[in-house]
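Fold it.
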Amino acid sequence: MSVKYVFVTGGVVSGLGKGITAASLGRLLKARGYKVTMQKFDPYINIDPGTMNPIQHGEVFVTDDGAETDLDLGHYERFIDESLTKFSNVTSGKIYWSVLNKERHGDYGGGTVQVIPHITNEIKASFYRSVEQKNKETEIAIIEVGGTVGDIESQPFLEAIRQFKLEVGSKNAILIHVTLIPYLKASEELKTKPTQMSVKSLQGMGIQPDIMVCRSEYPLDLNIRSKISLFCNVPIENVIENRDVEILYELPIILENAGLAKATLKCLGLKDKEPDLKDWKKLIDNLKNPKMEINVALVGKYSVLHDAYISVVEALKAASGFNKAKINIKWTDIEKLNETSIKKEFKDIDGIIVPGGFGKRGIEGIMLAVKYAREKGVPYFGICLGMQVALIEFARNVLGLSDANSIEFDIRTKNPIINLLPDKIGVEDIGGTLRLGSFPCVLDKNSKCYKLFGVQNITERHRHRYEVNNQYRELFEKNGVILSGLSPDGRIVEMIEYKEHPYFVATQSHPEFKSRPNNPHPLFKGFIAACIEHKKK
């Protein structure tokens, strides 16, 4: 069959959860046996989010093929359990960059380059490209457009959708509009007018939504749904209520009961099937009915915005659910950590995790957290920066190299434990110049990591430009550091662990990007299991 396209837009306000709604629909369609892929279009001019401050934009999610993408792709991968590609996240910057390069090359034959048709044609080509590159067997492509209807930045994308729907036909491309139904406390009533105006904006651009997904804190009764149906020109059965949920992964079940997948398949002219959601319901049951609680300190550089570590948090929750435990995450302010405060800060903590980050701000605070975990026997899990800082702390306080550091933090250090990757020397551009994407790793068969994975050869996703300085490897190994994972050529240290510690594991990679709600990553499962053992003792 020909590929069917589902576009997801947002109205009224930002932050309504378009990405989660789109991902939930993907899960429901895949549970019915359909082959699904997903794509995100972002209106900002950046080529990708790789150079953006995580405190402003949130996490940068990395795909297997090395693309730095929007955090919504993390939701997509976790919900539909498919690895996406560089074609799955398209920005205005990428679109304009491509068009301008074609113009410089003379591809437009001297014609005037305009938003219509050149920019919109490039956007439409990207709709097709994601499917062609991802999987020729794809049956349904779900495409989310970032921003809010009415934003000037989104207009070329909406115009491209209008043209695209006309070209492929109404049964092959539909639009789901996610909006807010606010509640006015003074008059004690839900208001549909903002949703009506949002839809009017779409209709003014020649686009008619096929399905409305309405976010609300209160139930939408028949009168409200009828009003939305009447004024927005949408069948009442296609007005879907989307209430807040206690656990994120409940949303597919809520939307299934509300009829979202059924309405989508009907609009696309596809057969509805009985969904297989047994594993998903088991996941929710585990998360809702834990047998114990554990407390984990997340010691990160960007903790003021929790979205900066959203994949780490979801991986921790998934591993906790797998181990039938509830996790309480303590977000630690690294700039307030000192020798006096740390005992109080980590009282009752069952594990410490240090995720990735860039720059020297707060590094000494992270160092104190690492030292605490090493000396007190608290389970430790270091990711990327978390591995590098762990080795610096070990070099300073165990090996006696008091000035040990990374050249990222001190270019003049006499003991550069962490050095620049050789192929990054002299690279001045920031964007897209890291070691990005999936790389192989060979595990030491005598290591904890090997026991966790159960195989010797693995692949993990990376995002870094610094590595362990090989000149210090022998010194580390003689003093109790196990180099538990190396690149196949033996040049890059990928994973480490400490011999004389209940659980001290760190990796140069970002395993959080490969963790799934119903299939947690082995390193996260091992860490949570160690936290549970620590709690019991």
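Residues 62 and 68 are 5 Å apart (CA to CA).
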